[in-house]
Amino acid sequence: MTYSASISFSGLETLKEQEMIASLPLKVNDRIAIPGPELSSAMQYLWQLQIFSDISVQQTDLDQHKIALKFSVKELPILDKVIFAGNKNFDNDELRRKTGLVTGKKIGQQELLTAVNKIEKLYAGKGYLTAGSEFRLQENGKNHVNALFTITEGSKVSIEKITFHGNDAFSQKKLRGVFNETHQNSWWRKIFGSPKLDTDKFNDDKNLIVEFYRNNGYRDARVLRDAISYTNDKKGLFLDIYLDEGQKYYIGNITWTGNTKDFATTEILNTTFKFKKGDTYNAKLIQERLNFSQDNADVSSLYLDRGYLSFKAKLDEKVIKPNTVDLDISLREGEPFQLNTINIEGNAKTKDHVIRRELYTVPGDMFSRKNVVRSIRELSMLNYFDPEQITPDIQPNPENNTVDLTYNVSEKQTDTFNTSVGYSSTGFTGALGLTFSNFSLKDIFNRDAYQPLPHGDGQKLGFQWQFGSDNYNTLSLSFTEPWAFGTPTAVGFSVFDTHSAYIYNSDGVTPTVMDQYGSTISIGRRLTWPDDYFSANLKLKYLHTTGGLLSLYASQVNSPNQADEYSVTQTFARNSIDSPIYPRKGSKNSISGELAGGPLPGTVDFYKVIGSSSWFFPITKKLVWNISTQHGYLGTFTNNDYIPYTDFFYYGRKWHVNAAYCAIEGV
Questions:
Q1: Which of 101, 117, 216, 647 is at 20 to 30 A from 430, Cα to Cα?
Q2: How far does the chain reach from its first CA to its final CA, in angstroms?
Q3: pLDDT given for residue 403 in this prediction
Q4: What angle do CA 536, 537, 539 make, to 5 degrees?
Q5: Residues forming beta bridges with residue 17, ordered by sequence position
Q6: What is the pTM for the complete model shown?
Q7: Which run of H or of E encompasses 635?
Q8: Residues 272/290, Cβ–Cβ less than 8 Å
């Protein structure tokens, strides 16, 4: 048996020899076999330290079965600085973060090669596919180096053409349209910027191609590979994508097991699932109709809307040759869960009761996913919170079949202040406006609540002042309580005073001067019929007008100088949009009728009917189609009735002194 009589190191520059000897798993006077595992284990340990670029060992035989071991090492250099050259499109800090190199630590060849790859990938991801990078180490004292990366950026490469291979079921144009971010060049894209290849986004788009095929029956479709070739000037590229479409599949037999409830019979499940034998296989639609669909008309909703929070549906697809897929769906129904506590987190400004009165989830009720989704919609419609940050935290308690529900919200700025001033040929114009959309009248005498004004009760207080030299000046004050008498009843009022002068006479020179003051009182109520998206509103208005009175039929020469208007307006509306700012789906519809004079007091007599409708349809994740239409009719009781021209219809940049108008637009 051989013993290690001594162990030593050579080549150490920053490390101490005694510390290295002490850390070795092989010690002096240990038994050692040559060859044997002891020496291999010591060498492996030194390599794993990752502080040496070269390691070797020399053995010297001594008397009486003893040997001396000498490890010759070369330490990795310490990185002092990372330097970049040739980079114009990315700054040094961004490149340094991307490489992940840390100064003050030892640096190895592999880390530098990895840094080069990261730099080239960063450039390729932004369209610089021909960009290259190389490194060089600069000596900076004993065993210290600077790493210099020289970058050749080249120019951005545009995608000139995308070609699919192996596509028999769908055309080139159809498949190119599936891509979200990767597009080929065209005459109109050259105007706004030629398309560039982002490798990460391209990988996402390839996944979209596979998903598209699977949603059109091609269950086994896959992307085999892709290839890139360049134009002669290296400024354009050709992208070739090779596909294996596979067989087109159709739905075979659909089997349900585990359904024991009366509301989930096999017939009801098939009706809800909406697939039948012979339908084209669609992976996405199968999952939506089984687990979650936007219209809440899926199989899981049958259970989750009745409290069965632990419901699970397991899908087993069996391929039956040549082109059929049988669906075996096993259901685990579980037990119904009851709502226990409803908590709210993140509302630093809005008071709890303002949020709770909007919720469709009430402690003691059975859990319902539909009610949770509706509650999120109602909180979003308040416009007090970031709609993307409204998230429910559902915590089941299986031991007693209850569930704790927390709504997490993030307050956003709701109060607005606007001011403007300008100068034109008519003089100075300007505006000053204050709107507090989450005001608290109850705390108006609470000094601690002024931040800068009392807030949190959901009331709306507004003040507006607009002026335009001598031709326009208006002041208005308004207040609305959206939840009066502890019920979903909105009560509000406004007062205003306006002076205006417009050229509306036949000579086109003499201005028509009109002074108005008045007030409105309104009361509105949310309805539960025909459904709970409906509301009704009644508004009473008094308006005193001096000047500016027109008639539909009679001569303007005989128009009175003053008039008093007493009117009542009844409005019925239905609003089912999903967001007050950027709606993606739903609709807003309303019809209103206004009566002034007639059986009411006053010297202004007319009737007006207005109907409007706006519908939102999601086309893609980022594109929404909006169709809007508005119609109106204005009539008087006699030919000698005069009306303030502010009551006429206004569309575009002209006053319409006719009895009806129609406006239709699409976005």
A1: 647
A2: 90
A3: 97
A4: 160
A5: none
A6: 0.74
A7: strand 624-635
A8: no
Q: How far is CA 473 from CA 313, 463, 502, 651, in A?
A: 65, 14, 12, 22
What angle do the packed helices 109-125 and 199-214 form, to 10 degrees?
A: 60
Beta strand ranges found along 504-561 (DSSP E): 511-526, 534-546, 549-551
**Signed CA dihedral, 372, 375, 381, 383: sign only:** negative
Tens-digit pLDDT profile for residues 329-352: 999 999 999 999 999 999 999 999
Tokens representing 645 are: 């021209």
Structure-block tokens of residue 469: 């030299």
Structure tokens at 335: 């037990």
What is the Cα–Cα distance from 462 to 436, expressed in whole angstroms?
6
**pLDDT on residue 232:** 87
Q: Which residues of the chain register pLDDT less than 50?
A: 653-658, 661, 664, 666-667
Q: E strands along 444-488, which residues?
A: 459-468, 472-481
Residue 247 is encoded by which pair of tokens?
């067989």
Sketch out the chain's domains with CATH numbers.
2-75 (3.10.20.310), 78-152 (3.10.20.310), 158-244 (3.10.20.310), 250-332 (3.10.20.310), 338-408 (3.10.20.310), 527-667 (2.40.160.50)
Q: At 646, list the tokens.
A: 């502010």
Q: What angle do CA 638, 643, 646 make, to 5 degrees?
A: 150
CB of 327 closer than 8 Å to CB of 251? yes
What Cα–Cα distance (Å) separates residue 505 from each residue in 511, 516, 657? 7, 19, 13
Residue 239's pLDDT is what? Answer: 94
Distance from C-alpha of 51 to C-alpha of 78, rounded to nearest angstrom: 10
For 271, the enclosing helix (H) or strand (E) is helix 266-273
